[in-house]
Amino acid sequence: MRRRVVESASVRSVGWSDGTLELEYVNGYVYQYLDVPQPTFAALMAAPSIGAYVNEHIKPYYDFREI
């Protein structure tokens, strides 16, 4: 999946494809969050703080796997 680099203290890059949200954290770990709708991805990319959005709107609600 292609990811784009973002400005964030905790997230290095973000990608989305067919409901899978892929986050590369600054510590090097990469996680995929499953069944994330496109509007949620769009809101993440528009959020003033990507890390805060992930913590409040992604992690508590979507299954994930480390890759």
Walk me through this protein's architecture.
Residues 7-62 form the KTSC domain. This is KTSC domain-containing protein. InterPro entries: KTSC_dom. Pfam families: KTSC. The protein has 67 residues and is an alpha+beta fold. It is 27% helix and 33% strand. The protein contains two helices and five strands. It has helices at 38-46, 50-58; strands at 4-5, 11-17, 20-25, 30-33, 64-66. Strands 1-2-3-4-5 form a five-stranded antiparallel beta sheet, covered by helices on one side. A hairpin with a 5-residue loop joins strand 1 (4-5) and strand 2 (11-17). Helix 1 (38-46) runs antiparallel to helix 2. The longest helix has 9 residues, at 38-46. The termini are close together. The model has no long low-confidence stretch (mean pLDDT 98).
Helical segment count? 2
The portion of residues assigned to helices is: 25-40%
Give me the strand/helix succession.
EEEEHHE
Q: Overall pLDDT, averaged?
A: 98
* Fraction in beta strands: 25-35%
The largest pleated sheet is described as: 5 strands, antiparallel
Structural class estimated from helices and strands: alpha+beta
Query: Which word captures the global form?
Result: globular
* Alpha carbon gap, first and last residue: 12 Å
Number of strands: 5
Taking all Cα atoms into account, the compactness measure Rg is 10 Å
List low-confidence stretches.
none
